[in-house]
Amino acid sequence: MLIVRDKISIVELKTAAAETFGDLVKAVVDVRRRIMAVGGDLHSDEEALLLEDGSSQRDLWGINLYPQFDDERRIEFDSVINIRPGQGNRSRGVDDSEIRESICSIVGEMVTP
User: Long-range pairs for 95-100 at CB < 8 Å and ≥24 separation?
Assistant: First the structure.
């Protein structure tokens, strides 16, 4: 499990996927700090790592990355940590389109060929 502050390659994501779930990598994105944690068994593990690093829980969103895809199928918005009625998010997804767009932008900037 690691914090990505700059870039991560598709090869690194594929390796992390092969070591855990086969075709996906769990990730948690901090939309304020524009960093993400990848490679944990649970989104809550990555969330804890980012919290220890100074992130605020309200800025953290869990996703699954499918490194074999290079289109909209790469990001799956599905995590128990996303259920936050107090923030208006009542599902495992990310209901706010602006937050989803921010996550897509961050992942797009960080994941390199």
Answer: 99/31, 99/61
Cβ contacts of 97 within 8 Å, gap of 6 or more: none
Q: How does pLDDT run across 1-28, given as a tens digit for each residue?
A: 999 999 999 999 999 999 999 999 999 9
Burial (CB count within 10 angstroms: exposed 0-12, middle 13-18, buried 19+), residue 6: exposed
Q: For 102, list phi and psi in degrees, rounded to 5.
A: -65, -45
Closest to 21 in 3D by CA, of 60, 76, 103: 76
User: What's the predicted TM-score (pTM) here?
Assistant: 0.96
Question: According to the model, what pLDDT value does residue 105 have?
Answer: 97
**Residue-averaged pLDDT of the chain:** 97
Question: DSSP strand E in 31-98: where?
Answer: 35-38, 60-65, 75-76
Token pair listed for 69: 């895809």
Give the count of domains, the chain: 1
Q: Which domain holds residue 74?
A: 2-112
